[in-house]
Amino acid sequence: MAINIDLLIEKINNLQDICSSTCIENSLELPQIVVIGSQSSGKTSVLENIVGRDFLPRGTGIVTRRPLILQLIYRKDAVEEYCEFNHHPTKIFLNFEEVKKEILDETSRVLKSKNDVCEIPITLKLYSSKVLTLTLVDLPGLIKVPASDQPKNIVLRIEEMCRKFVSNKNAIILAVSSANIDISNSDALQLARSVDPSYSRTIGVLTKLDLMDKGTDAVDVLAGRIIKLKLGFVPVINRSQTDILQKKPIEVALKDEKSFFDNHPSYKKNKLYCGTSYLVQKLHSILHEHIKFCIPNLQTSIDKMLIEYRNELEIIGAINFTPREYMFKIINDISKRFKDILDGRCELSSTELVGGARLNYTFHHHFAEFITQLDALGNIKDEQIRTLLYNSGGSSSTLLFAHIAFEKLSKQSISTFKPHCLKLVGIIFNELIKIIHQITQNLSLERFPIFNDKIIQTLVKLFKEKSDSTHKLVSAFIDWNIAYINTKHPDFHHWRHSIKEVEKKEEEIINEKNTKITFDPIPINLKITKNMTDQDLLEVQTIKALVTNYFNIIKKIVVDQVPKAIMNELVIKSEQEVQSTLFREVYEAEGIAETINESDEIKDRRLFLENMIRALRQAYDIICSI
């Protein structure tokens, strides 16, 4: 359904009012016309000509120190013009001198220094039968050099404020420039170009054409031959400083403006596209079309923000229980969520592993793959094994394979599992703590800092107790396997045949030797210095194979049994005791009411969310009615 142009702009004005009263303004980019220009560009006079009234404060230094949202509202039946301020909604202003004073008073209410500026806007509504419905945002004039009594950073602060408003992708930029200076040096156009490089949403307003040097004109600028703006330039004639001091009526000034363009040899051929009257009609039309273009994206943005704020408010929630009822509910929720997360019944993620899936991956991938890569003998050299073989034989012959050496090397290799298995206990312990932190965050228990800390401390203590007992169990499990080397293990049985083969080959090697033996004195520190014989090599390789085989058998046992021990002693027993521990240590503790004490930060956040949702609903209703 088509909607009246004026009504459309008024609805956006209503939306602007809602946004200005909340923080939505910082998140929602509204379609609006933003007026920028240097202090000497005649920006104030342009706005007064558009309104047809002398209503803006004037003076030296920075006069416009807060953004002024000027909402012109056409009322056909308005007997006389009147104004309203959003900060003073119950008062109607009929006298425009009072409007000037109110702008100054409201500015000073927020800004104590006359040389200070801020982004908090003042909203002025003007109802009249003599205006076209239009909304303009007037900003402080751009300056190059601060005055002696102004802050050194005032130039940058004003520029940053103006940049923030014109950076809004839905803002039409009304750039006011003086015709009697080089247009390429225009402060307004330079700022506009920094946020709108193609000048697709910038309208140029050219002032002071009547002050140009004799014999010159601004035709090339207006025709876009120097700087091309998609929305073009509009020339206007403002009142001079003398006119203002002599209180020349704006109605007279507008007639003089029309006469200037009607009679000027350079502009009269295109006089229909010159002057304040044409500028107002052009802005009215552009704003209307721009609003229609922006509405779908505005609705999408409001929808998105509503969903985000509602979700956050739902998480924060409202307190509808007594402290004891609330604590009872939370303890049951934590217990259920803890079990659900471990069992994989929680909200699933497609981007990362969570809860029980992380434990499973740690056991069967991270831990299992690491243990599988361990080497039985590590950095033990063959010479060390040969020495051990000799020593294990004692005073007896080493002809037969040394079982003592095999056991010693096997125990040494099995002991390498212990630090890694104990580290796994610590990893799972930390994962359980992460799960609890995740649960308390999802339940927004941060709003009760004391209660939240008590919950976490209690469960960390429980997990620590179970972790300590699991630590002892896993350590004992490795010790069991070190203490008894089971050569009767089914997977080790076939190596007996290999041992007999080695013994047979050793005997053959000895029988083949026919070397003379000499008896030399034994040195004090006796080491084996000769190269390994065939017999030595055979024995070393055989024991290495046997130790590696047995190590691989224990490796499979460790990969299988250690996760089971940790799951039972740490994870499952913790899960079984979460609820009872919380009831015993938290629910039955003294001072329960004090623990359900919401922080001021959470209270403020809830109030903020409620206000934002209320404002967004109003904004949504406005958008849907367009």
UniProtKB/TrEMBL annotation:
It comes from the Eukaryota. Keywords: GTP-binding, Nucleotide-binding. Pfam families: Dynamin_M (PF01031), Dynamin_N (PF00350), GED (PF02212). One of its GO terms (molecular function) is GTP binding. GO terms for cellular component: cytoplasm; membrane; microtubule. Residues 27-296 form the Dynamin-type G domain. Residues 540-626 form the GED domain. InterPro entries: Dynamin, Dynamin_GTPase, Dynamin_GTPase_CS, Dynamin_N, Dynamin_stalk, G_DYNAMIN_dom, GED, GED_dom. Belongs to the TRAFAC class dynamin-like GTPase superfamily. Dynamin/Fzo/YdjA family. This is Dynamin-like vacuolar protein sorting protein. The lineage of its organism: Eukaryota, Fungi, Fungi incertae sedis, Microsporidia, Tubulinosematoidea.
